[in-house]
Design a protein that fits this description.
Two copies of one chain form a homodimer. The two termini of chain A are 24 Å apart. Helices cover 27% and strands 30% of the residues of chain A. With 291 residues, chain A is α+β, with helices and mostly antiparallel strands. Chain A is built from eight helices and 15 strands. Chain A is globular. At the A-B interface, strand 3, helix 1, strand 5, strand 6 and strand 7 of A face strand 3, helix 1, strand 5, strand 6 and strand 7 of B. Strand 3 of chain A pairs antiparallel with strand 3 of chain B, so a sheet runs across the interface.
Chain lengths: 291, 291
């Protein structure tokens, strides 16, 4: 574990704090109401290739949450992120950036003039040696999400639905939980976006189904198109999983992981990672400068 | 504001802490993922008439959230609650009790052996002088909730959907936001349960519509039946609001507040509080020992 966190309490400039004494008010709305946002940013050889995309999404999310503004400029957050990485000597890993609406009196209604809280933590992390060969086994979660909630489109601190789904998956010996919306369409994994490959075409649930516009999802779509694979964002059902040649899931940390089984049923040809998934993973690693 | 909070960090016994120094770890899952529960308990003349119901719901919620157990016995929490009320000399007000899954490493998946965090705050509170005569004006929120999510049935720290709905209502000069589910049925207010009165009968959305089993809701149903009003839990639409003779909303703090207008349209006879609502409120106040 790293020694330092970066914190900005009540809108103050970010500063390094020793992990053991990094605390927030017990009346912070992040703690009381899950009222805030986060980003998980991959670090490669001390660099953060997609930091600008993460900070852009953070700014958009703050608007969705009706924050009047963030007290930190995005370039200030980027500088703090790099200071934290250096202070903790992180080479390959991640930064988790958390912004809450800060402390306030009781009640759901947001204060008109909040003093947000910032917490950033950095840590070494590398994929498990067999991550890309073994892939993920997933369950279909019994949780159904609403496509008509602002929450499904932001990476919010109100993540308990995903906590429950992913914990239930782990209790069944699986790595991920796939969530359907209340209309029965596939949306995403609890911590990942979903892709299905069929006849050399990539299919992924459209944002209208109710899912996070993942940074990894966008990179995978851009890359696939550049590689000449036709891509379609649409309305996918469980049947699309059963008919898939391959499937994979993406996020900013793992990039693209083969989905080898869902509810115990092998995906594609015997549940083995497929060649299109391998091509996407290789391209994403290249784009991030991972050897 | 009260001087003391009651905290129990990493499962330790609750103890009184001065408000200004009451902090939690920046890596608490309550802060990172909205991973926990809360209760708001009304205090009447230093007593807590429905504390046992709140603690019972807290225990049920912990099971829904897949907590292996709570580290505090319910009688221990009740004693801590009363110690806090006495320390702060609260006569009439509330206690907010918050339990999170405690600090843990990154990732949605819950640790198998969590060390939960407890925070209790107590404060004086009295209804605004005109609360029961002016009533609440509500908006119909554009947020649609999923009836197929475990979250709608627990009072969780992942409350951002309600924060957004209630904040949007306030921006329109209203007091509450009514939420429909994705099938178009009424569920509840962001911070209240909903009742409609028609021809001396009480109608309220069934739990299957996706809503919190409110303590105030249960008390209102029991009382209405005792007073001889037929009660029905069912599938209500917006049309039921327009056809209502009266409507009111309930929670543990405000008890029963007349709903006088929705989206600017008066409810019942000219948007005036009705006699059935008044009878329910009077009965709830009597049952709590409020003069």
């Amino acid at each position: 574990m790293s020694a330092y966190l970066m914190v900005g309490i009540e809108g103050a400039a970010p500063r390094l704090v020793e992990r053991s004494v990094a605390t927030i008010s017990a009346q912070d709305r992040g703690f009381l109401y899950g009222d805030g946002l986060f980003e998980t940013i991959r670090v490669v050889q001390g660099r953060t290739p997609y930091l600008a995309s993460h900070l852009e999404r953070l700014g958009a999310g703050a608007a969705t949450l009706l924050f009047p503004r963030l007290p930190w400029r995005l370039d200030e957050l980027a500088a703090a992120c790099h200071d934290l990485i250096r202070a903790n000597h992180v080479t390959d890993g991640y930064v988790r950036l958390t912004v809450s609406r800060g402390p306030a009196a009781r009640g759901y209604e947001a204060p008109p003039d909040p003093t947000p809280t910032l917490v950033m933590q950095a840590s070494e992390w590398r994929p498990a040696p067999d991550l890309y060969t073994a892939g993920y086994r997933a369950v279909l979660s019994s949780v159904r999400v609403s496509a008509h909630s602002p929450l499904c489109r932001v990476k919010s601190l109100s993540a308990l639905e995903k906590v429950i789904a992913r914990t239930q998956a782990a209790q069944q010996g699986c790595n991920e939980a796939l969530l359907l919306n209340t209309d029965g369409y596939l949306t995403e994994g609890a911590a990942t976006n979903l892709f299905v490959v069929r006849e050399q075409r990539l299919l992924t649930p459209a944002l209208a189904c109710g899912l996070l516009p993942g940074i990894g999802r966008r990179q995978a779509l851009q890359l696939a198109r550049a590689l000449g694979y036709p891509c379609e964002e649409g309305f996918l059902t469980v049947e699309d999983l059963w008919r898939a040649d391959e499937a994979f899931v993406t996020n900013a940390l793992v990039l693209a992981v083969p989905l080898t089984a869902v509810d115990g049923r092998p995906i594609g040809h015997g549940g083995r990672p497929g060649p299109v998934t391998a091509a996407i993973l290789a391209g994403l690693r290249r784009a991030m400068g991972i050897e």
